[in-house]
Amino acid sequence: MQDSIEHRLGKNGEENVIKVAIFASGAGTNTKKIIHHFREHAFIKISLVVCNKQGAGVISIAQEADIPVLMIQKERFLADGYLTELRAAEIDFLVLAGFLWKVPAVLTAAYPNRIVNLHPALLPAYGGKGMYGANVHEAVINSGDSESGITIHYVDEHYDNGDIIFQATCPVLPTDTPETLAAKIHALEYQHFPAVVAEAINAWKSLQ
User: Fold this and answer.
1) Which among 25, 32, 38 has a CA at the least distance from the CA of 99?
2) What's the pTM value of the predicted model, to 2 decimals?
3) Which class is domain 2-206?
4) pLDDT tens digits along 75-91
5) For tag attachment on the chain, is the N or C end more exposed, with fewer CB atoms within 10 Å?
6) Contact, 50 vs 85, CB < 8 A?
C-alpha cells in the first residue's frame, strides 16, 4: 500500500491526487460539508463513501455528488476492514464522520496516522463504546459540566483513544437539553471539521 502511495505522490511529494474515503452511518451532514470543502481542491479528492446502514441519508448525499458508495457488513468489516476494496480504489486517507463501528486493527495498521475521527465531546472524557450522539450529550449535561465541544483525533485500535489533533469548546447552560447541546456541537463540527481534515492530510503528505 505504501509503495503505491509513494509512487503516485512522487519521490519529492509532487502534487498528485490524494484520495479520501469517508466512513459514515447516518444523515451525512458532516460528509456533505467535507465534500463541499474539497470539491475544487487542487490535490485532495473525496473518492469514496463507506456506509454500514441501508437507507442512511449519507448515501443520497454521495450519489448527488457522484461519489461511489461502498456498503459494508459488520462481520467482514471486523475481519478484513474491506482493505481489498480500499486498495483497489487507491484510497490514501480515511475520515470517520459519524461512523459508529470500531475500526479493526487491520485498518489502523494499514493506515497509521491516516484515519481521523470526529467525536462530539471533549476527549478523553465521554469516550468509549456507546458514547455517540444523544448518549454523549446526556452524559455531559447529567455530569453538570460547564462546557462541551468536539474532538478531532487520529484513530487507533481502541475507541476514542488516538492522539488528539484539534478541540473546540462551547458552553453548557443549565437550560440546555441534549437537543440544544447537539445543535451547538453540530455548529462546531461544520465550522472546523473539513479544515482540520485538510490540515491532517497535508501534515501526512509533507512527510512523504
Assistant:
1) 25
2) 0.91
3) alpha beta
4) 999 999 999 999 999 99
5) N
6) no
